[in-house]
Amino acid sequence: MRHPISPLSVLVAVALAGCSDPAPVVEDAAVATVDRPALPDVPSPDAPDAPDAPDVPADVPADVPADVPADVPLDARCVAAPPPDPFAAQRAECAFTAGARVADTLGLDARARAAMPIRHVIVVMKENRSFDQMLGQLHDHGQPETEGIPSSFTNRDARGATVSFTHATTTCSGYDPGHQWNDMHAQVNGGAMDGFVTTAARTAGGDGHQAMTWFGQDDLPFYYWLASTYALNDRHFASVRSGTFPNRNFVLYGTADGVRSTGSGYPRPGTPNLFDRLDAAGITWGAYSDGAYFSASLAWTSSHRGAHSLGDFLTALDAGTLPQVVFVDGVENIDDEHPDGNVQQGEAWTRNVYQHAVRSPLWPGLAMIWTYDEAGGFADHVPPPERACIARPGPTDADYFALGPRVPFVLVSPWARAHHVSHAVQEHTAVTRFIEALFDLPALTARDANSSALLDLFDFTCGPTLLRPPPPPEAGRRGCFGGCRLTLDRSAYRQGEAIRASFAGCPGNNPIDWIAVYPFTAGTPTLPIPGSTLWKYLNNAHVGTVAPRSGTVTLDRAALGRGPWPLPVGEYTAYYLLNDQYRVVDAVDFRVTP
User: Fold this and answer.
1) CA angle (406 as vertex; 345, 79 as ends), nearest 5
2) What is the pLDDT of residues 437-456, one digit of tens each?
3) Of 105, 123, 276, 331, whose CB neighbour count within 10 A is largest?
4) How many CA atoms lie within 13 A of 574 on its CB side?
5) This prediction's pTM
6) Domain 485-592 in CATH 1.10.287
7) What is the DSSP letter of 457?
8) Count of CB atoms situated within 10 Å of the CB of 239
């Protein structure tokens, strides 16, 4: 039945009215300059403004007055309680089915939905990392409300030795533990969480200890900042105890649709999906990537009507013309963070998306979600629920009830509860239900019908508390080989002058490690990718023969890749890259002048 006015309606209806006790104003809260890092990122704030906002500083969203002070912590009296959830008990019992509306499952009626100030949604779903691996030290570095990794949490290896969590020695390991159906069930082991090391050893080789490693704040400074600045859920689990394909299917279909593991098939034609529902409601949407859309889980190509490039995404975001619901993915094994991609390179990619988002004219009404599709076989200490709602009656969905290990989940929005941690148990269809709540779409299956809609992560009463967020730190660097350094003989060159790139302390074990130069232009596809402007192997030639740990490479006409030479006036980045591929070890910026 419909509920004319719910308690949630009353709370959300005052969303735009502000608070009686506003945050104190800091008189000298100046906007800090954000320096562009060497890894790919958006331009620094002194770059030209977007055409639709010529008079607004580049680090301020287009429709935010330039004299608004930077955000400061709210007065305690102006922090609204999380909204009431009158149907939580019914959802826990899986009482709702496909077709259910949020008025019936969340008490979110038309008046409450209309008061929600979110107009655009961006979903950034990365690849194959557990919460403990990515944010396991957050309790001691910025967010004490999260649960740290207990010292008592261990696994045993095949020899019976006790294995504890340790700091990862590199951010670009190729170690890729098994993470499909059978492996994940063995890792969780009915909630004992003691099968990560033995499964990793069996599926990825070695002793399996790398499955029990974490990255700290020094490794991933932007991610730690994001998780402690915005609203974090530390009980967000993968939708199914398996790999990428079934988990991404749950977001888009509310079911795995019988796809048990990555590569085992695709959703059946005719299965209702989120895109169909958005189309029927007249809601615009798009999928953006320079690689495989949705990590290839739908077999889309660039010719699909909803598929676009990352450059298209950044251009539309900057111009304020982005569709209402957007999914954006990195390039697989490069910046989507799937092993053996460099996690720091993926962090820089996410930071780039974030910087464009906060500078977009859409920012005041934007919600961006940063999460991962599944844990990738890396350890997490929190047992996932054994019984979630089965999506549909019948044999196709009957086995899909156990959730997978935790993954990071952060809501990024001016309306996010600042520096907040939610412990509410949720899985990927909470994202689906949030989109359904915004646009009054019916549930696809019983799974999303009984999901929360992320409402406890927002503060629509006292917000927007993060309309002017503080400047973020740079993404981490030099995590692949900490001693490897790339330097240039100067920071600026005249056109036609040779560029001398020196490297030291580098791996020294691969003759096709290489130095490559790319132009830096905001809004271009992810870099580095095929098509470098200049490049040479470490022996200073286009044919690799030796692998020194140190040396100098001269980048001139003889190094031409895509060219041209002399380099046009502008900004560039030189990269040290591994194994004739695009994994970044170190990078340095330079410019070319007339």
Assistant:
1) 90
2) 999 999 999 999 999 999 99
3) 105
4) 31
5) 0.81
6) no
7) G
8) 31
